[in-house]
Amino acid sequence: MKCGVIIPAYNVGETLHTVLSKTQDFIPQQYIYVVDDGSTDETKAILQKSSVKTITLDRNRGKGVAMRAGIQRALQDDLDALITLDGDGQHDPAEIPLFMQTLEKTGSDAVFGYRQFRIGVMPIDRILSNSLTSWIVSKVTGHEVPDSQCGYRMYRTTVLRSLEINSKRFEVETEMLIKTLSSRYQVSHCPVTTTYHGNNSHIRRIPDTIRFCRLILQRLIQKK
Predict the structure, then answer these.
(1) Which pLDDT score, from 0 to 100, does residue 155 have?
(2) How far apart (Å, rounded) are the C-alpha atoms in residues 162 and 155?
(3) DSSP string, the chain
(4) Which of 3, 56, 126, 224 has the greatest number of C-beta atoms within 10 Å?
(5) What distance in Å separates the CA atoms of residue 160 and residue 177, rounded to the nearest whole number?
(6) 55 near 70, Cβ under 8 Å?
């Protein structure tokens, strides 16, 4: 299976080099696509020294826009599947084989990672917000979704070619999950470890929550 990796990156200079180094243990450099979402730190310098494929946005446009740009570029190559992971070091590239094994073993169209919602493993505010959004998405889709917000995922390229992605920011993960399920693709889930480095999240709680609610409302209206 020919697999690529898409990494949206915004001001992740402290962790990007390590993420790329670990990712290259499993994915050839020519199939690693990093989208520089208008970074203002050393992210640009790291990418200039790397041989991975870089897509540069003129300014910070949001994770959804960066994800769409990465997918659009990666789909130009002859790949069977694409993995999405973050550049801030929260996702361990060493778990890439786990996604590949799950996809091949189950014959699924997509594999979604899910994290441990436990105090001491995840900050409590994220436990509360992620548990709530996952419960809401499960009810809306009619599928048990253990973690609707985890960005560590694997899709067959046939799935990504069929999805129309419109989200601009962090609600992109929810949109992609809902549309994958509503298109009746077979989905599997696998546990992943997540490392929090104490850095501030780029998520803006109030506006991003509003975007999530708008996305869910649109889905409910479409189901009527």
Answers:
(1) 98
(2) 11
(3) --EEEEEEESS-TTTHHHHHHHHTTTS-GGGEEEEE-S--STHHHHHHTS-SEEEE-SS---HHHHHHHHHHHHTTS--SEEEE--SSS-B-GGGHHHHHHHHHHHT-SEEEEE----BTTB-HHHHHHHHHHHHHHHHHHTS--S-SS---EEEEHHHHHH------STTHHHHHHHHHHHTT--EEEEE--B---SPPPS--HHHHHHHHHHHHHHHHHHH-
(4) 3
(5) 11
(6) yes
What tokens does 103 get? 């996809």
Quick check: 198 pLDDT over 60?
A: no
Neighbours of 110 (CB within 10 A): 22
Return the CATH superfamily for domain 3-223: Spore Coat Polysaccharide Biosynthesis Protein SpsA; Chain A (3.90.550.10)
Cβ–Cβ < 8 Å for 82, 155: yes
Q: Which of 197, 203, 204, 201 is nearest to 19 (CA)?
A: 197
| pTM for this predicted structure | 0.86
Mean pLDDT, range 172-184, rounded to an integer: 92
Pull the structure tokens for residue 55. 């897509």
